[in-house]
Design brief:
GO molecular function: structural constituent of ribosome
Pfam families: L31 (PF09784)
Number of helices: 4
Helix content: 40-55%
Strand order of the largest sheet: 1-2
Number of strands: 2
Radius of gyration: 19 Å
Subunit structure: Component of the mitochondrial large ribosomal subunit.
Main location: mitochondrion
Subcellular location: Mitochondrion
Largest sheet: 2 strands, antiparallel
Shape: elongated
Structural class: mainly alpha
Length: 105
């Protein structure tokens, strides 16, 4: 308990990095920029003439300017009040697409 491996105040309190409950304006701008960059890559692959199943799925997704703000910054969650949670609460949210949600949500 009082040796070399005693728990420090930071360890015993909890997580050091907290996730804010609301996206800041800067983070929202970064989300929009990320969506636009993905749209640009999808368009470049389409223009190159390549045909594949992944491209067909990507072309079916809505573009950034076609999405509602609610769909840009939140995702469907059956466990949260209102059935929505912030996109930044999803693990690996910068690497996976969350552009589509169930009908009615």
């Amino acid at each position: 308990m009082f040796g070399a491996f005693r728990p420090t105040a930071t360890v015993s309190v909890g997580l050091l990095w907290k996730v804010p409950w609301r996206l800041s304006a800067t983070r929202k701008a970064n989300v929009r920029d990320r969506l636009k960059k993905v749209d640009a890559v999808i368009e470049a692959v389409r223009a190159s003439g390549v045909q594949c199943a992944a491209l067909t799925k990507a072309l079916a997704l809505p573009k950034e300017h076609e999405m509602d703000p609610r769909d840009k910054y939140t995702v469907f969650s059956p466990h949260h009040r209102g059935y929505r949670k912030g996109v930044h609460k999803v693990p690996k949210w910068t690497r996976i697409t969350q552009r589509t949600n169930p009908k009615g949500f």
